[in-house]
Amino acid sequence: MAIQTKAGVALLEALAARLGAGSVLTDAGDIGGHLVESRGLYQGEALAVVRPRNPEEVAFVVRRCAEAGIPIVPQGGNTGLVGGGVPYGGIVLSLARLDTIREVDPLNATITVEAGCILRSVHEAAERVGYHFPLSLPSEGSCRIGGNLATNAGGTAVLRYGNMRELTLGLEVVLADGRIWNGLKGLRKDNTGYDLRNLFIGSEGTLGIITAAVLKLFPKPQARSTAFIGCSSPHRALALFEHLRTEAGDHLTTFEYMTDFGLEIVLKHKPASVRPLADRHPSYALIELSSPQADADLQGQLETILGKALEDGLIEDATISTSGAQSAALWSLREDLSEVQRLEGGSIKHDVSVPVSQVAGFIETASAACEAQMPGIRVCAFGHFGDGNIHFNLSQPIGMDKGAFLAEWGRFNRIVHDIVHRMNGSISAEHGIGLIKRDELPLYKDPVALDLMRTLKRTLDPRNILNPGKVVAIDADHPATLPALTGHP
User: Fold this and answer.
1) Which residues of 211-245 are buried (b: 16+ CB within 10 A; e: fewer)?
2) Distance between CA atoms of 436 and 242, rounded to whole angstroms?
3) How far apart are CA 262 and CA 59, in angstroms?
4) What pTM, to 2 d.p., does this model score?
5) What phi-psi label fits residue 236: left (phi over 0), alpha (psi between -120 and 50 degrees) or beta?
6) How far apart are CA 419 and CA 363, in angstroms?
7) Of 199, 251, 276, 363, which residue is the least packed, with the fewest Cβ within 10 Å?
């Protein structure tokens, strides 16, 4: 825990007097879980974890911290993957108690929720009125809407529905001076000035603290069909995607990609999993069609589309689910991949995106470059093929020392990120910048864009109290102060 200064003690006393002693946690056992990044990459410290119950209490906390010059790190479910929610001094502002679903408006197809709502709870609230909120993440049982907004979360349904920026109509935000901006409008059209909403989405709590949002709802899918497909290369998988996009149209909800190595380690470490195809293939696609029409013959549509793809040599084999249980089994092959990869030793991870037309070329080019640099390295490329987002992870060679492998993280960043940059891509597709990519950003981001980002940070947070040191380094946030990694997945 951070050392309490006189100003820190006075602040905690003031917060406890307003919020109640049970809302200001200082015991090591109570706050320990809030100080560690979910993959164990960083270990932080804080004076306290403060747990307000409503936006007015959030505003009070921010005002008092601003007066005392004490930093604030907003935190939702603490499921982030880039160190963006790890505190280094100051307080952790937990939004977990702001978990009210304020309004569901079926006719407007919107739901207004507070930042502490768990994603699965939003799914359930939408389903109760016959609608669908499409953001889908492996952590949906623990991640919270505020964090989803702060990182502009994507997930497996971006291809059909978009990421959080595209799923959000309005926000409520506490600013760095404690004022509350009420932008909770469920409007599809509002051309009255600058787009403040999108300024805060994806800012990782560095410009303001999101306390509520108006989210879009969609007709609930009544029919689904899932298929697992084997291809001879990522280029064939990309050609299959183009074929499906043309033939299935808006019914194509998901197109996920994984390599043979990825499938094999899932089968190895998950004994209940079943090999989906008779033979092994270099590349695989998990696809799903969905429709709000219960009588839509999606299975028949898939059979026709994949039959033509087989004739044209785009695919080598495929299986189509005939039940919900079979569909779930196919999905588990993709969803379990992140979990089992750590069982293969050290993993150097990259969350990148390139134009969809470049995805196959990126996988082949980056794989060859990494394999040339370290014989025996095992490329585990997987992700959201249809929106250009690939999780390009590298598993250590068999028998290599884990520490020695992870010490090469920086070298492989240069290899992978340089290729992404040449393809006009992004070094962060959906996980954010946080700490782990903060000092990578100046190497690849347009200098004018970086200058604008720093200008916005200084303007909206002149005292630099909102999640300082994350995303962009300004003033005293020199790269040399970047905390060292304490562990790796």
Assistant:
1) bbbbbbbbeebebbbbbbbbbeebbbbbbbbebbe
2) 34
3) 46
4) 0.92
5) alpha
6) 10
7) 199
